[in-house]
Amino acid sequence: MKHVFPFKYSIFSKRTILVLLLLLLMGTFAVKAQCLENNFAFQSGEKLVFRGYYNWGFIWVAAGEVSLSVRTTKFQNKKTFKIEGEGKNTKAFDWFFKLRDTLTCYADTKTLAPLYFDRRTHEAKYDAHHEYWFDYEKNQIRSKIQKRDKAVKFDTLKNKPCTFDILSVAYYVRNLDFAKYKKGDKIPLSMLVDNEIHSLYIRFRGLETIKTKSGESFECLKFSPLLVEGTMFKGGEDMTVWLSNDDNRIPIMVEAKVLVGSVKGLLESYEGLRNTKNSLFKNEKGNLEIAE
Description:
- By secondary structure, the chain is mostly beta strands.
- The chain has helices at residues 17-23, 168-173, and strands spanning 2-3, 47-56, 59-75, 78-89, 99-108, 114-123, 126-135, 140-147, 153-158, 163-164, 186-193, 196-211, 217-225, 239-244, 251-257, 262-271, 286-287.
- The protein has 2 helices and 17 strands.
- It comes from Labilibaculum filiforme.
- This is ATP-dependent exonuclease.
């Protein structure tokens, strides 16, 4: 059965599948970024779980899991969304490359403007702790970065309008009004990654249907984020993201070419969805088996 609904990433840092799935919803532009006017896509209590796969040759291997969750709380006496992301590889790969990453963001419930962002990275022998405080009165971002066996670094960046971190930006993109754009359009965005503010973009590529193993079809919004060249990517638009074409805008699948092979993330389970009417998802909780 095909579901059709009306319209309403990314920068990648280091090596982690967690960052891949979080950053799949971001991009950079030379155009002025737009701020959120209305959150219609998610609510407190939502939790999404993704399964990560790595391809080398003709074989797709389950490599890790990423979970994203949201709840309301207070931060600096303000009502905020606490957005948390956790990524880890499968235990079978621990002997080869142990990965445990956690991301935490406190963002304004109305605008999704980030107030604080924390990233703790544990990848094999690499450890790092990044913290960022957003001061909108002074138009600054203060940072504190600690890496293994290195001195703590403090810095102050000049903030830009509507700048998001790699967690809040993913939820911001879910609220974009894609009805304003036609196939091929670039949608601008400003994002903070590794103590730098980047101006990127996502290119809207229209609609495409994703099928489950049971044969069900889901119409999705398809786009490609502009990637920054680094240890995993050559740069360019070698990543594709599919969002459910309904009011939930759930990331259903992401694929990207890396320097060696390619990676894929598939939605595995969901709960606490905000929208159940006029939705691809008939219940607020469930599991999916996306056809690979």
